[in-house]
UniProtKB/TrEMBL annotation:
Location(s) in or outside the cell: Cell membrane; Membrane
Protein name: Olfactory receptor
Organism encoding this protein: Rangifer tarandus platyrhynchus (Svalbard reindeer)
Gene3D superfamilies in UniProt: Rhodopsin 7-helix transmembrane proteins
Topology in the lipid bilayer: Multi-pass membrane protein
Superkingdom of the source species: Eukaryota
Function noted in UniProt: Putative odorant or sperm cell receptor.
Keywords of the record: Cell membrane, G-protein coupled receptor, Membrane, Olfaction, Receptor, Sensory transduction, Transducer, Transmembrane, Transmembrane helix
All residue ranges annotated as the G-protein coupled receptors family 1 profile domain in the record: 43-294
Sequence similarity: Belongs to the G-protein coupled receptor 1 family.
Membrane-crossing residue ranges in chain numbering: 25-50, 62-84, 104-122, 143-163, 199-224, 244-267, 273-296
Length: 313
């Protein structure tokens, strides 16, 4: 091993990867990535602004939507500097502490988004299956309780594995698979016993993401059963329309996560480009699509945006 290689391995600096073998195209890639981040920031800020300024949207469904938009906004902020830095050729290096911090935010925000989607599923379940009890069940105090629970679960449950990353010796070449840091990517470079992190992370995924997905699926089954019992076709369609945007948001969130997990677990023989592509879809697709989905599918937001833009013109 050369002296320079040994120095790189023993340092606390990691190299972020963009698209291996396509480095000469990074200036071109930076254009769509910049546009995507612009959509993420403008779209989610617009949703937050509309929910905040429109009194008719001050109800549980839109409070949870504002939480979703804020989560997506934070996801964009936590990854933009490394993704665009790599694409623009500004820097491909990141220190261990900064990498661990980014890992915490990326995974913590994913758990938060899953929790918010579960809360939104519960909201739709109560609105359709028990409409007369909606206001008595989803009171302001319960919304605050749900919010605190989601924040606590996402911020504290992941801390043990994140703290443990600080004390691993990283003796393999410090080359990461993505243009941002992930827990499983750092584990791949560690040269000590990683059993605790591996098993804890698996248990955490099962108890959060998988459990949330099962509960969301159950709520969809109950909602569908209730909708099918409605005799009026007009009312049946109206009830289904209120769930379409939420179902789209759930699919937009869970499909990339499942895809990235499958690639990391069973796709080691695949091209590195596949890993990079799935990683970027995982962090960028949900934050970009959610404001578009809710702007198109939610009539209250759509009408408020039209009114707002007409006043600006």
């Amino acid at each position: 091993m050369s002296a320079s290689s040994a120095s790189n391995i023993n340092s606390s600096i990691f190299i972020l990867m963009g698209f291996p073998g396509l480095e000469q195209y990074y200036p071109w890639f930076s254009v769509p990535f910049s546009l995507i981040y612009a959509v993420v920031f403008l779209g989610n800020c617009l949703v937050l602004h509309v929910v905040h300024t429109e009194p008719s949207l001050h109800e549980p469904m839109f409070y949870f939507l504002a939480m979703l938009a804020l989560t997506d906004l934070c996801m964009g902020l936590s990854t933009m500097h490394t993704v665009l830095g790599t694409m623009l050729g500004l820097s491909q290096e990141i220190g261990l502490d900064a990498c661990i911090a980014q890992t915490y935010f990326v995974h913590g925000l994913s758990f938060m988004e899953s929790g918010v989607l579960l809360a939104m599923a519960f909201d739709r379940f109560i609105a359709i299956c028990s409409p007369l009890r909606y206001t008595s069940i989803l009171t302001n105090s319960r919304i605050v309780y749900f919010t605190v629970t989601i924040l606590t679960r996402s911020s504290l449950s992941i801390l043990p594995v994140i703290i443990h990353l600080k004390f691993f010796p990283y003796c393999r070449p410090h080359i990461l698979s993505h243009s941002f840091c992930l827990h499983q990517d750092l584990l791949r470079l560690a040269c000590s016993d990683i059993c605790f992190n591996s098993f804890y992370a698996l248990a955490l995924v099962i108890c959060t993401l998988l459990l949330d997905a099962v509960l969301i699926l159950l709520s969809c089954v109950f909602i569908l059963h209730t909708v099918l019992t409605i005799t009026s076709q007009k009312e049946r369609c109206k009830a289904l329309e209120t769930c379409v945007s939420h179902l789209c948001a759930v699919l937009v969130f869970y499909i990339p996560i499942i895809g990235l997990t499958m690639v990391h677990q069973f796709g080691k023989h695949l091209s590195p480009l596949v890993h990079v592509l799935m990683g970027n879809i995982y962090i960028l697709f949900p934050p970009m699509m959610n404001p578009i989905i809710y702007s198109v599918k939610t009539k209250q937001i759509q009408s408020r945006m039209k009114k707002w833009f007409s006043l600006k013109m």
